[in-house]
UniProtKB/TrEMBL annotation:
One of its GO terms (cellular component) is membrane. The chain crosses the membrane at residues 12-29, 35-55, 76-96, 169-187, 193-211, 223-241, 247-266, 278-299, 311-329, 349-368. Residues 414-616 form the SGNH domain. This is Acyltransferase. Residues 11-331 form the Acyltransferase domain.
Amino acid sequence: MHRSLRYRAHIDGLRAIAVLGVVLFHFGAHWLPGGFIGVDVFFVISGFLIAKSLYADVDAGSFSILGFYERRMRRIAPAFFAVTAVTSLCAFLIFFPNPLMTYGRSLIWAVLAFGNVYFYLRTDYFGPSAEETPLLHYWSLGVEEQFYFLFPGLLLLIARFAPKARAKLVLGLLAASLIACEIVRPFNPAAAFYLLPFRAFELLIGAALALPGVRFPVSAKAGGAAMAAGLALILAGMLLITERAPFPGALALVPCLGAALAIWGGERVTSLPARLMGLPPLVFFGAISYSLYLVHWPIVVFARPLLPDLPAPAFLLGGVALSTLLGWLSWRFVEQPARQNTARFSRRWVFSGTAVGGALLIAFGTAASDTRGFPGRLSPEIQRVLTYTRYPFREVVRDGTCFINGNRPREAPAPECLPQTHPSLVLWGSSHVAQFIGALEPIGKAHGYAVGQMTGAACLPLVEAPSSPMCDKLNRFAFDWLLAHKPNILVIGGDTLVSEDHFRLLDAQLAQLHAAGIRVILLGPVPQFGRPAPEILAERMYRNEPSRLADDDLTEGTRRADRLMAAHFAGNPNVTFVSILNSMCPDGNCPMMVDGAPLQLDPSHFTREGVAYYGSRLGALIFGDTSAGAPAPPAAP
């Protein structure tokens, strides 16, 4: 017979800190840049509680596979299906066809407990952003469920054939997973983030803490000190770790060991920190933490298109409040009845309900995928405009040869990307400058220039500003190549640079490049929007709004970066600064569509029509052909 674990109030308090960190971070609490590590705290808690129950049942000879998965389903499935069904309805009502199609595919994988694998496979610089993916947070559920598909079987095998080797198995797997994560992370950070082999060590830290031979503090002083140290580690991680940190891997030990210390310190004795962790507000958030985690991210995703002008403080406070309300409703009316009323919700009901609920969600996901997002909801013209969200942008930037993507890593651009003769023009930087190649190459050749390209995904042209390993290698190669080969013209920029540190580093590079005799053209930011430009246009068409100009949809961040860059670089003799907004857009109001074709496929990247529009004007500014460079008003679609 299964032995239920005793209630631990301090663990509910720990859950509260974990979930509030995640929720605050996702709703834009910039003062908590490492709030996302709350997920790692959850992994340790889960590993400890589930492993402790498993060890007890296996040792007593009462472990039942059916019983174990019934408890897992009773705990996980009701809220999962309820929240996912409501999310699916919202996606159908709010999303245009392409994001709904993508949502349907993610839904299928998430229901099958492989959401993390799907999001890993979809990790792509050119893929949908996190803010367009309502089920992205389900990756952590996938990691947990895959772990619990495997871990009970391993324990049974060890109990049958090597009962004294359990601790060695747990510690050995823990060490292997951590080492593998640290090895893989620099080269494939998405795999290290999403996939079980590289995250298992976090659950195994909890499982190691639950081993029967582990001794816990027996004095309130020692237990309290351990809890305080653990909580300090977690809070310090949330305040100091950032998204740009090398995470997970060894750095994930900060929240994981913090969680382990907090659990360890409160397991046997009651101390002041334990009592504080058991205060009613923390216990409340700990109790609803699972439902709160489920509901919060869809709210983040759907609020952005519905309330694009919502001020950040209102988004933070309102989002947390609404998430808390919906999380409580899910906990009270979905989670609790299914867990507590075992007479009404029997084992057969749990298994059959899980099967039926999963089948219905998979059926919806399949329909959304196979129909490409139910496009019949919209007029043919709107459907045509929305097809640009699936534009083949890889071809625009010459991905895989002259544009280096993290999914297609190269040490340097292919040799054919580098000009071999003079005069020459070279593009260096991110996709925002790479996209100009389709216009500048023919224009340059018409003026007798060889044209080259050294560009990479999200790679600002800054040598001394650490970024990803891929960008660091590319930028070092590019800068050394430029100083050695001295092209006549170098084009960089297109990004929203606002950091004084970036300006300072760029000033130093510009001085070196100018001293080498290179004429440097620095572009201001390309037009950037809060969501894909075709979706903005489609929404205007649906509402019969006539404007095809950027208007208020151009982000304020773009305008601000353009002003700051102009003020800083306009008087620099080492560079020619070109404001795209002011030199290529009539009255500073950039066109979004010309002759019925959207100029951008997403918030910031050009279609070929966009390359032609902006690239021809840039070419005219570089080579002095003023007849080609005057901005023309956009034609009506």
